[in-house]
Structure formats: C-alpha cells, structure tokens
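User: I need a structural model of Class I SAM-dependent methyltransferase from [Kitasatospora] papulosa for a docking pre-check later this week. Nothing fancy, just the predicted structure tokens so I can convert them on my end. Input:
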Amino acid sequence: MTGQQDRWAELTGGQAGEEYAQRFARLVRSGHDVHGEAAFCTTLLRPGGRVLDAGCGTGRIAIRLAELGYHCTGVDIDSSMLAVARRDAPAQEWLLGDLARLDALGLEPEFDLVLAAGNVIPLLAPGTESAVIRQLAALLKPGGLLLTGMGLDAAHLPLPEPPLTLTDFDQWCAQSGLILRQRYATWGGEPYRAGCGYAVSVHSRPVPAGRP
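Assistant: Understood. Predicted structure tokens for Class I SAM-dependent methyltransferase:
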C-alpha cells in the first residue's frame, strides 16, 4: 500500500461497489451500449491475448473481454468493487492490490495489453502516478500495449479540476520506456484534437532490436 488514500477512495469511502454496478445495470436496461472499452480492445488485440484490467472496478470490461475469448486478470484496490466482480464472474482472476505496488502481487510480465480505463490514472493517490505507469509498463510483453482512458477537464471527471495533463502522462510513459502510438477522443475512435475533454491513448512497449 502507498499509505496515501487515492482520489477514488476519498470520493466514495471505498463502499461504492453495489451503487456503481447498479448504475451500469440501469444504463443497460435503458438501451445504452456499455461495452465501448471492450470493443476498442478488440481492435488492438486478437482473442486469446492476455489482458490486465488495472483498476477493474466491478469487472464490467474484463468480464466482457473474457466472454469474447480473452484471458483477463482484474486488479483493484476497492474491495467493494471486487466483491461485485467476484460474484458476477467467480471463475475469473480478481486481485486486491495497489497499482503502485503491483510487484507485490507477483504478476509476470506476460500481458499483451494492460488497460486502465474509467479515469483510473486521474483518480490515483497524488504523487503515485509515475510509479503506477512504471508498474503497468513492467508487466507488458515486448510489443505489448498500454491502453488508457481519462478525462482532461471537470466535465469528464468526478473532480473539480484535472489533477494532471496529457503532457504529464506522456512524460511518465516515456520515462517507463513506452511510446505513444495512437490517441483518440472517445472509445468510439473519434480523432483527438487539442482541447478535447477526454483522451484514449495507446502506448506500446518497444520490441528489443533483433527480436522478431
């Protein structure tokens, strides 16, 4: 543990699992497609690939990806969210852990894609962001992808103001050896332009020279 509460815990008190799940259930009943993130993942990785859903919450994305043929592991620091995930998909791997201390979970660097959706990065404990990016990057295979989605203004965040910029984020990724490949404004793939309130970013871990 970092010893410092993340912004998500400050907002919810760590008891948001059932309420969060019910909110998405209402969206499904009203006809909304809640699988945009999973659909985006399928454009980057073929079924059978290994995915780490970092900050998986109630498991909405990881469960959908498993249904589509991916091998998914979910990690979250909020036990109330994981309780919902474990109830809905007991056969999947759900780990309770701090993203800044993923090394403590003993995960191997075997993931084709690491996903941090749902404003995971902006809601981290202040000052841990670079450490989290470093931990996520370390779990990627050579050529593996880090896929993130984050709000960049108050309209796209559950916060009064954004705690970081894309420049900050890209710098942390570069320091962790990752290269920006693509950036979009939505999970539907709309082009990103300066000033957009949301960014979906695809960074990759380079393949060492001489490797196929």
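Before docking, keep this in mind: The domain at 7-204 is CATH 3.40.50.150 (Rossmann fold).
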